[in-house]
Structures are given as structure tokens and as C-alpha cells.
Write a structure and sequence with these properties.
Elements: E1 4-10, H1 14-27, E2 33-39, H2 46-53, E3 58-61, H3 67-76, E4 83-87, E5 91-93, H4 98-107, E6 111-120, E7 135-137, E8 143-145, E9 148-149, E10 152-153, E11 164-166, E12 173-177, H5 178-183, H6 196-205, E13 210-221, H7 232-249, H8 252-275, H9 279-295, H10 321-327
Length: 341
């Protein structure tokens, strides 16, 4: 029986499959490992590429494009291995990349997920924006990474080589225990894309599990393959999903306070887009708040055992990352206040 499935979600990514699957196949060969492409109803030549060039790879065909979150949920339901590694189709892996991840999970039974060190494919001496060396979150719900705060991306450094518990691990390369994934219902399908892995890790932590970054494993991620950084749709999803995530996982009174502050901070972000002449992104922030107020009601019913928030969650920082970055000028992770939790 296989022990680990490397699950690659694909949507019209034939070129990326041709480019990046060779490294996955080369450096993931083991009797216990299978590679699977979960296809979100692609209309390009993806199926032909896999069938003709990578015939040993398992193919799961979904009937429509469910997005990142639900696409993985539906695909993982068809898998049976104890471990599943969610891997973006634009990731180049390296020799021996799986061993440190599996070893960490075996040695830490409370850990339900971990990520490798994520470096930039086009600038390999630097960390990659979406994940870097592990994710954290500040008191107002803004995520950042060890090695990346907002637009400041650091060079890969030995100072971040320690394997540590984090608040969240990136969905670009995320090793999970399948049973724990299914226990919490997987990724939130309503998010479609962006922030869904942070929400998932938050729900795990509130159940007493741990998340980790294991930098002894290295991958290289292109990033922005589906939605470019300046995309208004990406801005909309990031702001809306961040607010929905906070609403889902914070107690009511705390959420009221956080949202009052976020109204001010996000209004400033909207003004910043306007001053840059980027009206479409400014509108995206407005629409994110409008739709958040409409859509949050879906989370008011059902069991909500997660919402017993604790400041002691691993990787939760009690300061404002905006204050630290813009006012105090602390643009690198190792310059931030040390807060043990």
C-alpha cells in the first residue's frame, strides 16, 4: 500500500506540467509514493501531456473547475494514503525533498501539516512570496512569513533553517495527514482560492494540532501562475477571505473589535490604491468588505467548536505587523519583537 500521494491540482496547466513534473517524478521515486494530478476540468492538452509523457502518474478528472479549495477536497476524497502532499503545478522540487518532511511528521505526532522551505524559482537565492520559511499572523489578522513581510523578500539565510512550529503553512507545498484533513472538512470551498490554507491551519490549531515549517526540505515556486499579484480579483479574494477567516475563527466579541480596526486599516489600503491610480484594486477592497458582510452569515449555523481563541496559538503574534513594518521600519523577520508561544 502506498504511504504518500503527491497531489497536484491542475487547471489548463499543460505547459507547467511539462516543465515541472519531470523534477517531481525524478526526486519522488519510491515504492511508498504515488503522484496524482487532480484536474479541474481543463480544456487544454493537460490530459494528453500526462497520458503520453507521464503515464505512471494517476489522473483524477473532475467534472468542472471547483477552484483550489474544493478541487483539492474532491480529489483527496478519492485518495487513501495516510499522507497527502498538496503541490502546486508550478513547483520544482529537489533531491531528497520528501524525507525531512515525512521524518518531521513521524517524530511529531501532534503535527498534522508541514511545509518545506519555499524559494523563488526565478530568483533562487531568495525566498518565495507565498510561504517562504513558514507563516505567521498578527493581532489584526494580517499574514506574513519568516523571510517575507509584505513586499520585502529576504535572501535565503541560515538564520531561518530551524524547523519550527508556525501559524500556517503554504498550500503551494503542504504535507498533511489525510485523516486530519478530512476531520476538519478540508479547505473551505467558499473561499475558492487564497487564504484557504491559513484558515485550515487555524482550525487545526484550535483543535490542539500543530503546523510546522521544515527548511531542510527545499522547493522552488514560480508563484502567481493563476492570478498575478496586481490582479483586482486576487485583491478581492485576499481581503474578503481574510475577513471571512477571522469571522469563522474568532469569538464574537473579539471579532467585533478586530473588524472595527480592520475597517480603518482596509480603508487606508483602499486610499493607497487610489493614490497609485489603481482604481480597480481600490474597488476590489470595497467589494470584499461588501461581500464579507453578505457571506459571513453562512458561518452562523452549525457546530463552531473552533471558536475558542487563544493568544497562545503557535505563530500568533500579539503585535501589529503594519506598525512594525511601516512605523518601526522592521522589514525583516529577524528584526521583529521576539514573542515565544
Amino acid at each position: 500500500m502506498k504511504r504518500l500521494t503527491i497531489a497536484i491540482l491542475n487547471w489548463n496547466g499543460a505547459k507547467m506540467l511539462e516543465q515541472f513534473l519531470p523534477s517531481v517524478c525524478k526526486y519522488s521515486v519510491h515504492d511508498d509514493v504515488e503522484i496524482c494530478v487532480i484536474d479541474n476540468a481543463s480544456t487544454d492538452t493537460s490530459s494528453t501531456v500526462v497520458a503520453t509523457q507521464f503515464s505512471s502518474i494517476k489522473w483524477i478528472q473532475l467534472p468542472e473547475n471547483y477552484g483550489f479549495a474544493e478541487g483539492y477536497n474532491k480529489g483527496i476524497k478519492q485518495l487513501s494514503t495516510p499522507y497527502v502532499l498538496l503541490l502546486n503545478s508550478d513547483v520544482e522540487v529537489t533531491e531528497g525533498w520528501l524525507t525531512p518532511l515525512i521524518n518531521y511528521m513521524e517524530e511529531h505526532p501532534k503535527a498534522v501539516a508541514c511545509q518545506p522551505k519555499i524559494c523563488a524559482y526565478h530568483h533562487k537565492a531568495y525566498y518565495e512570496y507565498a510561504g517562504a520559511a513558514g507563516g505567521f499572523i498578527d493581532k489584526w489578522g494580517y499574514p506574513f512569513c519568516r523571510g517575507r513581510i509584505f513586499d520585502t523578500i529576504e535572501k535565503v539565510s541560515e538564520k531561518y533553517e530551524e524547523a519550527i512550529p508556525v501559524f500556517w503553512a503554504t498550500g503551494a507545498a503542504l504535507l498533511v495527514r489525510r485523516e486530519a484533513y478530512e476531520e476538519v472538512g478540508g479547505l473551505d470551498a467558499h473561499f475558492f482560492a487564497h487564504m484557504e490554507e491559513i484558515d485550515l491551519c487555524w482550525r487545526w490549531q484550535l483543535r490542539g494540532y500543530e503546523i510546522a515549517c521544515v527548511p531542510q526540505s527545499t522547493v522552488y515556486h514560480v508563484g502567481g501562475g493563476t492570478l498575478k499579484k496586481e490582479s483586482p480579483k486576487k485583491t478581492y479574494l485576499n481581503f474578503r477571505n481574510n475577513l471571512l477567516m477571522l469571522y469563522k475563527n474568532l469569538p464574537k466579541e473579539r471579532m467585533r473589535h478586530v473588524y472595527r480596526v480592520r475597517l480603518i486599516l482596509d480603508f487606508v489600503a483602499m486610499l493607497h490604491f487610489l493614490f497609485q491610480g489603481n482604481g480597480r484594486n481600490a474597488l476590489a477592497v470595497y467589494e470584499a468588505h461588501r461581500d464579507y458582510r453578505k457571506q459571513r452569515k453562512r458561518y452562523d449555523s452549525g457546530v463552531r467548536v473552533e471558536k475558542q481563541f487563544s493568544d497562545n496559538l503557535k505563530g500568533f503574534k500579539k503585535y501589529s505587523i503594519l506598525w512594525q513594518y511601516y512605523v518601526c521600519g522592521r522589514k525583516n523577520y529577524d528584526k521583529l519583537p521576539i514573542m515565544r508561544n
